[in-house]
């Protein structure tokens, strides 16, 4: 299913608002939407909310054979699922161009940046290594999927614990969490992607574009960076030409945003670790009593209700008495109808009355002409009546002057034909 295109009015409104440095949700140019990081009951499960964009990341592992050229290194695999639940434009079971682009960018951000020590994933050199799989599911699409996916993936990797392994000769034993405590992954740094949207060929710049802003943008620049200000990957799409000053400006903004997001993830990990050690509820067990397991929820706004009754009574006393019947507008122009309480519906009544009146007059005229014709025919005159709708002519043909006898009375002599009045019917 294709996504619903924007109308020209919406497109012009968005571009005009961006020119005036205004956004739909009231943010400033370099502001991020509200970010919320939550962890599930199991290790390696992370939920990220970026405004209305919701992403879930789940990390799993298994023992596999290593690559021949790198027998001492573990493997990492990333998979992004765009389900129809996130947006009607996403199709199930079909890999779209957007999913391929997001997969490649996530691999550059996390795997190619060497943020995880892959050598620590080796169990037996050349035989057994751990393969780390990161599955990212889009729960709701409201723009900037790449940033939300990178935050969820790196947070899930930091939260994940792999099982402990024991080696005795050629036998490899994998211990359960009850037998031995699971081991966290060795993570060097936390690369996070920051997206920049450009409008009107790079004239205007926005951070963290929403879904409607992504539809009208001319280009997108994604910079993956860690808190040490090291650029892990950079990618530009949209076919626009960017200057060196623009890229440097975006990198400075990204360094500030990455530091803030890294601090947020670190704080969330500490809170989750503290809750697990204390034996308290965490993950879904904590979310269920508070009814937080929803795809979308409305933010509550505190309202002062101390003097609500007094203020309502004052407004009620000062307000005017509303009329029982609302006046309906009267349209004085002919041919227009008016509908309302207490007024008669005159829609199309004038034309009908006019046509009925014309039909009635035409019937009377025909009857009158027929009577006159019968009388004159009885007197000896010839009457011709035309049935044409365009004109009705009654012609009285008298006798010719040369054939009229001399002793005929002067009242019967008529000079020339007598023609009735010509009437055009509408």
Write a brief structural summary.
Helix content is 30%, strand content 22%. It is built from 8 helices and 17 strands.
Strand content: 15-25%
Overall geometry? elongated
Output the structural class.
Answer: alpha+beta
Span from first to last CA? 55 Å
**Mean pLDDT figure:** 78
Which blocks of ≥5 consecutive residues have pLDDT under 50? 400-426
Number of strands: 17
So what's the oligomer here? Answer: single chain
Structural Rg? 43 Å
Description:
This protein is an alpha+beta fold. The protein contains 8 helices and 17 strands. The strands form 5 sheets. Strands 1, 2, 3, 4, 5 and 6 form a 6-stranded mixed beta sheet that branches. α2 crosses α3. The longest helix has 34 residues, at 244-277.
Q: Which helices and strands occur, and which strands form pairs?
A:
Blueprint: H1 8-19, E1 35-39, E2 45-50, E3 53-64, E4 75-82, H2 97-111, E5 122-124, E6 128-140, H3 145-159, E7 161-162, E8 165-168, E9 171-174, E10 183-184, E11 192-199, E12 204-207, H4 211-216, E13 219-225, E14 231-237, H5 244-277, H6 284-287, H7 308-318, H8 349-378, E15 382-385, E16 394-397, E17 418-419
Parallel strand pairs: 4-6
Antiparallel strand pairs: 1-2, 2-3, 3-6, 5-6, 7-10, 8-9, 11-12, 11-13, 13-14, 15-16, 16-17
